[in-house]
């Protein structure tokens, strides 16, 4: 019990003193995850909106595949990216393996289906609600997609936050393509796994506390946005 108490004390000390290694790991984690979410949103938002308003043969199969990809195993995604980015792979010439860029790609691959699937549901509901009005105004094609995306921007912000929560907690894929290299690709989740195995509980606990604070803040932001939207709708 005394060892655990001492570890918590050291962990709080690292946070309060803004330990340089701790800060570097947190900043890299935020840079990787935020970049991955931006990339995932650039792909997932228009894809989800298009699937919501466009009807085509095989759409049902595409939606089933998209929903299945929401639960895509991270280690499998990491393995596939590793094969693509390794020296023997088709993208090996880019020299991205064991870099933050590879980690961004890994997280984006995992987050994009989530963003696309949630966006599809949001836009489909909105399209159903305003279908007659939009049809009377002859809004169609890309204009329809852009209009619906703009009208649903607050709901889609919660989608992006959900994606960030998924990305910041990822460990399996990023450790495969990133390698967990000190001061290069070591993020919060991979460091927690490594330092726990080493018995360095202070740093692991400090990063765990920060990670919990970030995920709690994301969930609070999502709840706040939804409450604001609900209040505005009934106002």
Automatic annotation (TrEMBL):
<feature type="transmembrane region" description="Helical">
    <location>
        <begin position="61"/>
        <end position="85"/>
    </location>
</feature>
<dbReference type="InterPro" id="IPR035906">
    <property type="entry name" value="MetI-like_sf"/>
</dbReference>
<feature type="transmembrane region" description="Helical">
    <location>
        <begin position="97"/>
        <end position="118"/>
    </location>
</feature>
<dbReference type="InterPro" id="IPR049783">
    <property type="entry name" value="ABC_perm_TupB-like"/>
</dbReference>
<keyword id="KW-0812">Transmembrane</keyword>
<feature type="transmembrane region" description="Helical">
    <location>
        <begin position="34"/>
        <end position="54"/>
    </location>
</feature>
<keyword id="KW-0472">Membrane</keyword>
<feature type="transmembrane region" description="Helical">
    <location>
        <begin position="156"/>
        <end position="181"/>
    </location>
</feature>
<keyword id="KW-1133">Transmembrane helix</keyword>
<feature type="transmembrane region" description="Helical">
    <location>
        <begin position="201"/>
        <end position="222"/>
    </location>
</feature>
<dbReference type="InterPro" id="IPR000515">
    <property type="entry name" value="MetI-like"/>
</dbReference>
<protein>
    <submittedName>
        <fullName>ABC transporter permease</fullName>
    </submittedName>
</protein>
<feature type="domain" description="ABC transmembrane type-1">
    <location>
        <begin position="26"/>
        <end position="222"/>
    </location>
</feature>
């Amino acid at each position: 019990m005394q060892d655990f108490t001492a570890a918590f004390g050291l962990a709080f000390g690292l946070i309060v003193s803004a330990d340089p290694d701790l800060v570097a790991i947190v900043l890299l984690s935020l840079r990787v995850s935020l970049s991955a979410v931006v990339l995932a949103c650039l792909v997932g938002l228009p894809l989800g909106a298009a699937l919501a308003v466009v009807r085509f043969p095989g759409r049902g199969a595409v939606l089933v595949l998209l929903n299945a990809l929401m639960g895509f195993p991270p280690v499998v995604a990491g393995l596939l990216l590793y094969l693509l980015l390794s020296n023997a792979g088709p993208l090996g010439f880019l020299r991205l393996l064991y870099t933050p860029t590879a980690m961004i790609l890994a997280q984006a691959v995992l987050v994009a289906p989530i963003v696309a699937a949630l966006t599809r549901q949001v836009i489909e509901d909105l399209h159903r609600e305003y279908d007659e009005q939009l049809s009377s105004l002859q809004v169609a094609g890309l204009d329809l997609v852009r209009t619906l995306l703009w009208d649903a921007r607050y709901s889609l912000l919660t989608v992006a936050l959900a994606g960030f929560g998924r990305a910041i907690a990822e460990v399996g894929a990023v450790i495969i393509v990133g390698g967990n290299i000190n001061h290069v690709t070591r993020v919060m989740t991979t460091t927690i796994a490594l330092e726990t195995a080493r018995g360095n509980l202070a740093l692991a606990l400090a990063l765990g506390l920060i990670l919990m604070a970030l995920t709690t803040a994301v969930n609070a932001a999502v709840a706040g946005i939804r409450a604001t939207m609900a209040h505005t709708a009934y106002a």
